[in-house]
Amino acid sequence: MQKIIKLKFKLSQSKDLSSFFSFLLERQYDNGRNFNWAVLKYHSFFKNILNNNDFKISKKQVYEYIKNYYKQHGEEIGNNIKIFSQSWKKIEDDFLELANKLFPKQSWSNGKYTAYLTIWRMYPRFLDDKTFQIPYSSQKKRAINLIIAHELLHFLFYAYFLKKYPKYSSHKYDFFVWHVSEIFNSIILKRPEWKKLLKHNNLDYPEHKNIISLLEKQNLDILVLIDKIIIEVKKSLVKID
Q1: Is the distance from CB of 20 to CB of 40 less than 8 angstroms?
Q2: Sign of torsion, CA 94 99 105 110?
Q3: Is residue 224 part of a domain?
Q4: 46, 109, 167, 226: which has the fewest C-beta neighbours closer than 10 Å?
Q5: Residue range 35-59: average pLDDT?
Q6: Which domain holds residue 156?
Q7: Angle, in degrees to the nearest 10, between helices 222-236 and 174-189
Q8: Whole-structure pTM value
Q9: Position 241 in a domain
């Protein structure tokens, strides 16, 4: 019998602090795309610190900004954590049923399984402790359930994938496995039973759209699907052994 998980919802300013500096670090790998999407587009305060594409800021400065932001938006954040939790609980059992059918022999790994609301506009996951972030605010409340399902599905996928393909457990393959996992999620979440449950469309990364378009209508068994995604990612996105 597969393990039953129950998602918890929490607030953590320290999570937002560490996420900020993770996005900042990624600028050297993604030309600043994630930092722009997550921070600069919605938090103009930080644009004033950007100088000739260089960005230097202390943890204390960022923490003060986060603390003040939480204070200013405290009522909305407090209301939304209740709304999002109640909304997810209505579909949690149905989600688990679909996920367990997708990976019938893969158990949920031990972890916290906690969603942390964030003020940033990208939502990282943390595979080690099975936590992730979701937006503190959304005009489309249904989109939150999709984000939650997307992240939880990643935890199940990674456990399955790294057991099936242990070669890719090395950190040198992290970016490659990220591509495969995101494409897999996009294809699965477009399937009718998932769209019926989540009532919202998954947003794809632009560089993945050609592969998704190629594979999404074939309704492949997951092992065949993953093998095909691996081939396409190696061919067009990441050159690895």
Answers
A1: no
A2: negative
A3: yes
A4: 167
A5: 83
A6: 8-236
A7: 130
A8: 0.92
A9: no
